[in-house]
Amino acid sequence: MADYQPADSAFALDRDCTTLSRHVLEQLHSFGPEAQDLSALMNRIALAGKIIARHLSRAGLMESALGFTGDINVQGEAVKKMDIYANDVFISVFKQSGLVCRLASEEMDTPYYIPENCPIGRYTLLYDPIDGSSNVDINLNVGSIFSIRRQQGDDLDQTGLDLLQDGRQQLAAGYILYGPSTVLVYSIGRGVHAFVLDPSLGEFILATENIQVPAHGPTYSVNEGNFWQWEDAIRDFTRYVHRHDGYSARYTGALVADFHRILTQGGVFLYPGTTKKPEGKLRLLYETAPLAFLIEQAGGRASTGTEDIMGVVPGEIHQRTPFLVGSRDDVALVESFIQDHSRRQSTLLTN
Ligand code: AHG
Ligand code: MN
Ligand code: MN
Predict the structure, then answer these.
(1) Whether CATH 3.90.580.10 fits 219-350
(2) How do residues 2-30 score in pLDDT, each as one tens digit?
(3) Residue 97 contacts by C-beta under 8 Å, 6 or more apart in sequence?
(4) Across-strand partners of 178?
(5) What CATH number is given for 11-208 in this structure?
(6) So what's the pLDDT on residue 121?
(7) Cβ(131) – ligand 1 distance below 6 Å
(8) What is the pLDDT of residues 142-151, one digit of tens each?
(9) CA of 26 to the centre of ligand 2 (A)
(10) Is the CB of 83 under 6 A from ligand 1?
């Protein structure tokens, strides 16, 4: 009896079967308890992404899906109805998971605890439920950003102080980009991988494995409307790219979309400190640290301009950091302007 010969379509069939949860287990080469946990956590993230994608696709047809709630969140920003909807989706999806003891979100002053999970919940989910909220009402790209950390200690006083640790404590990180297709990009520390939601299957299917960011790219992504609020070094970098060939500006107003372009095509994204916000606008624990985790896994860099994002220890859950992220050479170029300026300043001070 000849060995069974699968049809040529076997490759496509196998790819359709490479779902996110299977991919996590393959990454870890293990079916042990932590591998199963991570696989289950990523499956929950995928479910949240599918629910949010569905809501976004119909928001224009639904009463009270778009627009503002009228509230101001802990960030001091006006809250969109979609922010709250997506925030609640993640809570609902993880409530019965038995995995997550608490969720820390951009939209909540303090972490949300799931007490019945805490005795067994080994993990914390930190997330930005809708990133790029200003794009929601005009049907442009938005995203969700997530980071998973192991629960450390029992946090009985529910202050979440054990979350105030550097980015190297992250077990997994990634984002969901809601665009013409819904893309989920993640890493558990073994490379960066992209999945595309196949609506006909209702599954995220593996599209690209081991994404590597080019050492240099043509894109610089920054809101030049803040030009006069930046320090001189950033203004000088901007003048440099204005005067040199080979650079083009792209800025969508959604960090996830701008980051995805940089991750796949190279270049640099900047959200520097400004006179109004010296620490910048982006938040460490659920925006810059998860993306720093990804870009380092993809061979790129992420810094505050003076130190690696992954080394920053936050003083509070919603701490902000200045953010440079992208190709090694391009991040280094921005940092060289910052170093030149600090050298000049120290020379002036010593003379
Ligand atoms: P969020 O919608 O979660 O508050 O994030 C918005 C962030 C980020 O997505 C984007 O890069 C940045 O804000 C845009 O800020 P500006 O409008 O100040 O450029
Ligand atoms: Mn955001
Ligand atoms: Mn947000």
Answers:
(1) no
(2) 888 777 777 777 777 888 988 999 998 88
(3) 40, 41, 44, 117
(4) 142, 182
(5) 3.30.540.10
(6) 67
(7) yes
(8) 999 999 999 8
(9) 31
(10) no
